[in-house]
Amino acid sequence: MENETKKKDFLLPASVIVAGVMISGSIIYLVGSKSNTPSPNKNTNPTPEVASIGDALKISSQDVILGDPKAPLTLIEYGDYQCPWCGKFSIEVEKPFREQYIKTNKANMVYRDFAFLGSESFAAAEAANCAKSQGKFWAYHDTLYATEHKDGAENNGNLNRNLFISIAKSLSLNLSEFEKCIDTNQYDEQIKKEIEAGRLAGVKGTPALFLNGDQIGGFIDFKTLQADLETPKAQ
């Protein structure tokens, strides 16, 4: 088990509305009545991990923790790799958050998939999970968001197998293992369960941010996040 602050991952054992909407001072991409995301199997009983709202937010063996897992603050983000506000959060907010809170062991972070903007979102989530299996989740996550944020368009075909393999090569992943992982949809069911758990926790769009179990908004700037991090309630 490795700490991401040393550039590696820590894996804990154990109708889209295409608009930014202001909600309580935060911006969030909302889930509409339709989605291209594959639906969870309705015949499957909820797993113990998603049996209640409280359980849905508990750190599980599937989570990759960025930073010290024993840090007093845990920020959970539910995101979609095609969501423009998620990309903005990744680039503009996560960077100072990592420098000032994660590297100083004041906080850690968990990213969970809420891939609802289409099949490309789901495919990107699977690719990132395949990178996770080789200990490179966060590096892959960052590259996906940087690429999509620069592109600035949804469902235009850019999040595809060729891109996923190109990113894998740039991160020196074992390509045969990576290709097998994405081609066999190895993480399909896990991502569906993660989306189901997110809905149970009250996620209605992306990004959705939870600090120590309390939802603090959608997209927020770093100063707003910092204010939440410094409040006695968060600690």
Q: Can you describe what's shown?
A:
The protein is an alpha+beta fold. The chain has a single domain, classed as Glutaredoxin (3-Layer(aba) Sandwich), CATH 3.40.30. The protein is 40% helix and 16% strand. The protein has helices spanning 53-56, 84-102, 119-132, 137-151, 161-170, 175-183, 188-200, 222-230, and strands at 10-11, 20-23, 26-30, 64-66, 73-79, 107-113, 205-206, 208-211, 214-217. Strands 1-4-6-5-8-9 form a 6-stranded mixed β-sheet, with helices on both faces. It has a 3-stranded antiparallel β-sheet with strand order 2-3-7. It starts with 9 loop residues before the first strand and ends in a 5-residue tail after the last helix.
In summary, what is this structure?
This protein has 235 residues and is of the alpha+beta class. 40% of the residues lie in helices and 16% in strands. It has a single domain, classed as Glutaredoxin.
Provide the residue-averaged pLDDT: 81
Q: Radius of gyration from the CA trace? A: 17 Å
Shape: globular
Total number of helical segments? 8
Number of domains: 1
Main beta sheet: 6 strands, mixed
CATH superfamily: Glutaredoxin
- Could you give the count of β-strands? 9
Which CATH class is shown? Alpha Beta
Just name the CATH architecture: 3-Layer(aba) Sandwich
- How much helical structure, as a percent, in the residues? 25-40%
Strand order of the largest sheet: 1-4-6-5-8-9
Low-confidence runs (pLDDT<50, min 5 residues)?
Answer: 1-8, 10-25, 31-51
Q: List SSEs in N-to-C order.
A: EEEHEEHEHHHHHEEEH
Question: What portion of residues belong to β-strands?
Answer: 15-25%
State the secondary-structure class: alpha+beta
CATH topology: Glutaredoxin
Distance between the termini: 25 Å
